[in-house]
Predict the structure.
Amino acid sequence: SGLYLESQVRASDIAITAGVRYDAFSPGGDLSNRTLAARSAINPRIAVATVLEGATIIASVGRFSQPPDLQFLVDAAFDDTTRTGRFRQGNPDLGFEQSTQFELSARVRLRESVSLRVNVFNKRLEGLVASSPLRVNPDSSVFVNADIGDVIGGEVILERERRHGWGMRLAAVVQRAEATVTDAFQLRRLTTIDPVTKDTIFAARNQWPLDYDRRLAFIGTIDGELPASAGPRLLGVRPFGALSGAAVVRYGSGLPYTRTNIKGDSLIGDLNGSRLPSQFTMDLLFRRPLRFGGMAGGIYLDVRNALNRGNLLSVRRETGTPNASNTTIAALAEAAYTANPQAIPYESPRYRRAADSNGDGIISGRTELFPLYEAAARDFTQPLFVYGAPRLIRFGMEVLF
């Protein structure tokens, strides 16, 4: 639940906006036969705006609270409990993840129809959910509010209002989003005992890129419309008259991800130490209004991802590419062959003439069976849904009643 109150005061060229937000959530769980009470937080915010030498300056600071994800409130096993008993214990007594945000922006009108906005921001994250050991063995851990982070960046927006038939808007964001990532194994590994003083020494806490740490993002839009008298006249109609069009260009640097081994239980390199390739798309839209008797409408051409760029959205963590490695393929094929080494007779629907190298009507032995399992492993690991949408062209007609 949440409640927000806001008030604004103006004095000459200064405007002050102040507000306070009340947030609450109930974990709905029991801890030591005691029902946990709802958690609540009061978050104040204030912004000051003024005009200096033709520019509007806005400074703001605010406190924000977010309830922890439900998955951190409940217990969950992350390995075979009958073999290793590895589990993570949920903590229904977790509190809010909080942040304090500082923002300073300036808005300047460069010309009558052109404006520029520059914005810098800093978000300090506190109480992020982390993992802490329950006992000496870090295999068993519990979630706590322990991690911290920092998001810092800037935004530039250049906008031209539609004048003389065209307008544009260019927006670019540069940011860095990092936080500590504490886990039970790391705490035990980094804690040492001084051999002389016998003091407990805790190593410095490094910050790693957050999952949404896109360092650079850009969106550019331009739109325009031709006058009704534009273009040549054909059969009494001007085909390009009142034609409108728009283009949207999007670019984003690659998001981070963590490399792991083939089993997924060991890291290869740093946390979020690898990055996906950058993404780029361009969309186009053209529309020509028409009239049908007493009804209005139009025809349009909508082209998404006009350059048909293959934007990679995800990769396999053990290879860093969309495809599985030859080692992974061989391991899957070997496991399948070991589990089912039986021969395949001619009467079976699984029989393949190309695999029957000696032509005896039976696919048998490793020489003939293993290539089939290897091909099946390649089909099984074929990358699906790892690329963005391909080029899409839609031509349509609309009628307004």
Notes: The radius of gyration is 30 Å. The helical segments are 184-190, 326-339, 365-380. The longest strand covers residues 140-163. The chain is about 10% helix and 50% strand.
